[in-house]
Write a structure and sequence with these properties.
Strand order of the largest sheet: 3-4-5-12-9-10
Mean pLDDT: 80
Number of domains: 2
Keywords: Carbohydrate metabolism
Number of strands: 22
Pfam families: Raffinose_syn (PF05691)
Strand content: 25-35%
Helix content: 10-25%
Protein name: Galactinol--sucrose galactosyltransferase
InterPro entries: GH (IPR017853), Glycosyl_hydrolases_36 (IPR008811)
Family: Belongs to the glycosyl hydrolases 36 family.
Low-confidence stretches: 1-15, 109-118
Length: 382
């Protein structure tokens, strides 16, 4: 308890100009306090009311990371997960299997965090990109992978954040993706107009009830194969569901391969992963445009890990010359892609006609970073 007053005093003198996000530590000690002064339940209620009021006023509602909060009561009050451990001395291959263990904990309940300079850096980055949470980096000073960071964070420091927090797919809910040697962790999330799927081979170690610690399970670490498709996403979930009524076809963009497949709602694609490897899929409902019966689906910025998160608005308009106009508001910069069954007659960025590529039914256009940093309007005339 000796360090708690130090933390309090440090947070009190931080300049308001840099007081953007805050880590609060040591809440677990509330379990031990006030036994004779109203009880821990009443203390916890007062603590969380004050914390919630402060978050709403100063931190946009959720800009707080709570560390060391895991007494029993708090498990029911917030998202929880074990810490990120880059490596652990005395633990066999902990640099690798601990990352899968951490990803599983967070997929079922919490916030991803980790190092960008790490053997599993891309594994962590992919999970954080579609987690729905902030991007939390714990790199050592001067040790960064800027190429990877640029696929997570935009030039102004903002991120392409999903509308929801990531959750395991239904077929993972009662399985063991770290110990059974057969289950791949699959997580889903929603952006404004697309779904996101992440597949992770986390097998290789985790919590052992007998030894009461995380231990390696190398016999479980092996290549895995699973099936995944549009139906893995809970399209009607949350406050901002995506209506797929009448949608029969989905464009599925595979981030690593930079390939696109068309799948029906019930169809699945086979995914094979080596230990601690991953795949990211952007899933977009395909619409049939009323004129010329052209199929169309937005994909997003393919240079970003959360590709579909770049799409901020989507409008369909009829042109007088029997053409279809699709107008997309894009947050960010880089390679913007959409699926179209026919080549567009023109593409425009903020009203100016630009060059574009059309390969394998994917339209690609280079979107510059806007100044000031607002959404860029990209028009596709089909």
């Amino acid at each position: 308890m000796a360090w708690l007053p130090t933390i309090v005093s440090m947070t009190m003198i931080i300049s308001e100009a840099i007081f953007l996000e805050l880590t609060i530590s040591g809440g677990v000690l509330l379990e031990m306090l006030f036994e004779e002064f109203g009880g821990r339940v009443e203390l916890a209620k007062a603590y969380y009311k004050a914390l919630t009021d402060s978050m709403k006023k100063h931190f946009n509602g959720n800009g707080v990371i709570a560390s060391m909060q895991h007494c029993n009561d708090f498990m029911y009050l917030g998202c929880v997960g074990d810490d990120f451990w880059s490596k652990t001395t005395g633990v066999a291959d902990g640099t690798y299997w601990l990352q899968g263990c951490h990803a599983v904990h967070c997929a079922y309940s919490s916030l991803w965090m980790g190092n960008i300079i790490h053997p599993c850096a891309e594994f962590h980055a992919a999970s954080r990109a579609i987690s729905g949470g902030p991007i939390y980096i714990s790199d050592s000073v001067g040790k960064h992978n800027f190429k990877l960071l640029k696929s997570l964070v935009l030039p102004d420091g903002s991120v392409l954040r999903c509308q929801h927090y990531a959750l395991p797919t239904r077929d993972c809910l009662f399985e063991d993706p770290v110990h059974d040697g057969k289950t791949m962790l699959k997580i889903w999330n929603l952006n404004k107009y697309t779904g996101a799927l992440g597949l992770f081979n986390c097998q290789g170690g985790g919590w052992c009830p007998k030894s009461r610690r995380n231990i390696s399970a190398p016999e479980c670490s092996k290549p895995l194969t699973c099936l995944s498709g549009p139906k893995d996403i809970e399209w009607n979930n949350g406050k901002s569901p995506i209506s797929i009524k009448g949608m029969n076809i989905f464009a599925v963009y595979m981030h690593q391969q930079k390939k696109l497949k068309l799948l029906k709602l019930s169809e699945k694609v086979e995914i094979s992963l080596q230990p601690f490897d991953f795949k990211l899929l952007t899933v977009s409902p395909v619409r049939v445009l009323p004129k010329k019966f052209i199929q169309f689906a937005p994909i997003g910025l393919v240079n970003m890990l959360n590709t579909g998160g770049a799409i901020q608005s989507l409008e369909f308009e009829d042109e007088e010359n029997s053409s279809n106009l699709v107008r997309i508001g894009v947050k960010g910069c880089g390679e913007m892609s959409v699926f179209a069954s026919e080549r567009p007659s023109a593409c425009k960025i903020d009203g100016e006609e630009v060059k574009f590529d059309f390969v394998d039914k994917m339209v690609t256009v280079q979107v510059p970073w806007p100044n000031p940093s607002t959404s860029t309007v990209v028009d596709f005339l089909l």
